[in-house]
Amino acid sequence: MQNLTEDPGNVTYNKSLSVIIKVCVVIPLFCFFLGCIAIMLHIFACHRQFLDTSRYILFAHMLINDTLQVLSSVLLFLFVMAQVKVALIYCVPLLFLSTTTFQNTPLILATMSLERYVAIFYPLQRPAAWRSDRIWAIILSLWLISSIFPIINYSIGKYDPSVSVLYTRVLCKVSTVNSSPVQVLFKAAVSILFFAVVAVIILFTYMRILLETRKLRQDRLSVNKAMHTVLLHGFQLLLSVLAFTSPITETLIVLHANWLPEDISFFNYFCFILIPRFLSPLIYGFRDQTLRSHIGKAFLCCSNRGRPCVRRKQCDRVFAF
Questions:
Q1: Which terminus of the chain is more solvent-facing, meaning fewer CB atoms within 10 Å of its CB: N or C?
Q2: Residue among 108, 114, 104 at smallest CA distance from 150
Q3: Residue 308 is assigned to a structural domain of this protein
Q4: What sequence ranges are listed for the domain G-protein coupled receptors family 1 profile (predicted)?
Q5: Can you tell me the distance from the alpha carbon of 108 to that of 103, in angstroms, rounded to the nearest whole number?
Q6: In b/e form, how buried is each residue of 283-297, taking b as 16+ CB within 10 angstroms?
Q7: Is residue 321 part of a domain?
């Protein structure tokens, strides 16, 4: 008769192998994402014409926001994979940054859609707040709005008096800090409100541009580009909404596959948190013709590192004004 109990050594080995595979999948993709974002931000910093356009300023802001979101989520992922426990004073700021940047993403998408709407309907008399030298006030407002709700969420929770913020070490997960039902309900309500408002704004801007196309005296090409841009923001919003489908996927996986809970969590994290954050800025960046040409030149410049003379000439052309 075979022994039905599994060898503890095999269980430990399988868990270790699973952790290594997960880390080896996430880290290279994360490094590639950071490399692409670094090139785009370097192009923005070296070319003044991008910083004089509100649309590109908002896009650079989205790159920074998504980088912070991915960086914080990957750090939390590595802490959980390694079973590293940290004090609450270090865990809470990391969770706060992850939540704030996650909620900031739909606000940025709505703002970028409204910027396209303003650029089409008010090309000569653009409101002062939407000018490139004033757009920073809107960006700061987005950060303020997205950070208020996590602060409220952490404030309404009930914490154990015996837990020390400085010395109690916990596994840094959202469920550790947002454990009460009130916090879970509040977070869900805020997320639904955020995405619903942004969806209405994107739909409104798209429909207005679509209906007023024939009435505008502008070039039809610029109007079509604005319509495609708003559609792209809607697609980016759809990618962000995928994060809320994790309960459905967990139920489907449990019904049709015998997966471990940690494997289900990783599947949801990789497919619905990381991949949308990786794709969203890259799709928008490579779609823009002006930015795409600079990105191609930057990659060409970096690929000629072994030929200093050629590389120097090409880099001079890439970063020339």
A1: N
A2: 104
A3: no
A4: 35-284
A5: 9
A6: ebbeebeebeebbeb
A7: no
